[in-house]
């Protein structure tokens, strides 16, 4: 303790801080928790034990934070402590580079954890959306050119020539490139009804004798017969009904009804009744 302070009889900074703390009914541990200052430094401040404190700049900062916690004037405490220390310097090898934290300016721990959790959630959502976009991408149907056939009768009388590709054999599979509601029936019996999400598929049972399709978003369906891609079953934005899912009908043209030739088939893209 400074001899000049003892002679004057006025309370030291440590005594003032301790008295104010006790008047407020606070323990030294409570002050340490509030100011984020190590308990040992607060004890050294109250006892004016400069050898156990860091450099004067940090010590004065500790005292100001302590003063704010117990309701004393920060500036007054800082000036008095500077005078009491009288230019005292500690050994640089023992200096602790610690900046006192003002609790009012310190980000709460829960807020930091919430921010980290929010960043992780954003990254996961972004990755999921990107994976969904990649899954929804489907290869474009192969376009094959067929040699022109010369009509032996006038164009007005010649029926359209429909020749299913030789590869139009195999299971009929419906794959969704976007959310698509479908209903597949066979002779009045519902085989499947529901929404296919992007990347999901539905295979028509091989035992089905006359399977029919009703689709709410035909543009979101990619239908294959074996390895061959069938033409679209209806225009985009319209509900398509009674589309035959037999391989020959699918490869014969869009919206063909089972049992009818392509030329006589009515477009099966009517809206749901």
Name some characteristics of this structure.
273 residues; alpha+beta; 434 Repressor (Amino-terminal Domain); four-stranded antiparallel beta sheet; 8 strands; 15% strand; disordered N terminus; disordered C terminus
How is this structure best described in words?
Helices cover 35% and strands 15% of the residues. It has helices at 3-8, 13-23, 28-35, 39-47, 56-70, 74-85, 109-136, 247-252, and strands spanning 172-176, 180-186, 189-196, 201-203, 211-215, 221-225, 228-229, 240-244. The N and C termini lie far apart (97 Å). The radius of gyration is 42 Å and the shape is rod-shaped. The model is unreliable at 1-7, 89-99, 149-156 and 258-273 (pLDDT under 50).
Summary of the model, kept short:
By secondary structure, the protein is of the alpha+beta class. It has helices spanning 3-8, 13-23, 28-35, 39-47, 56-70, 74-85, 109-136, 247-252, and strands at residues 172-176, 180-186, 189-196, 201-203, 211-215, 221-225, 228-229, 240-244. It has eight helices and eight strands.
Query: Strand content of the residues, in percent?
Result: 5-15%
From the coordinates shown, what is the CATH architecture of the domain at 3-94?
Answer: Orthogonal Bundle
Q: Separation of termini?
A: 97 Å
Low-confidence stretches: 1-7, 89-99, 149-156, 258-273
Morphology call: rod-shaped
SSE sequence, one letter per element? HHHHHHHEEEEEEEEH
CATH fold naming of the domain at 3-94: 434 Repressor (Amino-terminal Domain)
Chain-averaged pLDDT? 77
Q: What gyration radius follows from the Cα positions, in whole Å?
A: 42 Å
Task: Kindly name the structural category.
Answer: alpha+beta
Total beta strands: 8
Q: What is the H level of CATH, i.e. the homologous superfamily of the domain at 3-94?
A: lambda repressor-like DNA-binding domains
| Biggest β-sheet strands, sense, barrel | 4 strands, antiparallel
Strand order of the largest sheet: 4-1-6-7
Helix percent band = 25-40%
Output the CATH class name of the domain at 3-94: Mainly Alpha
Distinct helical segment count: 8
């Amino acid at each position: 303790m400074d001899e000049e302070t003892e002679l004057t009889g006025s309370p030291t900074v440590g005594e003032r801080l301790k008295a104010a703390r006790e008047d407020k009914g606070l323990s030294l541990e409570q002050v340490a928790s509030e100011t984020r200052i190590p308990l040992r430094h607060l004890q050294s401040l109250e006892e004016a034990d400069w050898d156990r404190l860091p450099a004067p700049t940090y010590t004065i900062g500790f005292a100001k934070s302590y003063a704010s916690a117990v309701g004393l004037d920060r500036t007054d405490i800082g000036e008095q402590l500077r005078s009491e220390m009288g230019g005292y310097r500690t050994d640089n090898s023992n200096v602790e580079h610690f900046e006192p934290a003002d609790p009012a300016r310190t980000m709460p721990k829960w807020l930091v954890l919430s921010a980290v959790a929010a960043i992780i959630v954003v990254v996961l959502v972004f990755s999921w959306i990107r994976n969904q976009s990649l899954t929804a991408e489907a290869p474009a149907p192969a376009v094959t050119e067929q040699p022109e056939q010369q009509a032996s009768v006038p164009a007005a009388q010649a029926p359209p020539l429909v020749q299913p590709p030789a590869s139009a054999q195999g299971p009929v599979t419906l794959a969704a490139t976007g959310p698509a509601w479908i209903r597949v029936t066979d002779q009045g019996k519902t085989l499947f009804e529901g929404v296919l999400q992007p990347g999901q598929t539905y295979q028509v049972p091989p035992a089905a004798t006359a399977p029919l399709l009703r689709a709410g978003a035909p543009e979101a369906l990619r239908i294959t017969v074996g390895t061959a891609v069938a033409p679209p079953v209806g225009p985009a934005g319209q509900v398509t009904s009674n589309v035959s899912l037999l391989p020959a009908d699918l490869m014969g043209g869009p919206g063909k009804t089972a049992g009818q030739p392509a030329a006589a088939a009515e477009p099966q893209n009517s809206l749901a009744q």
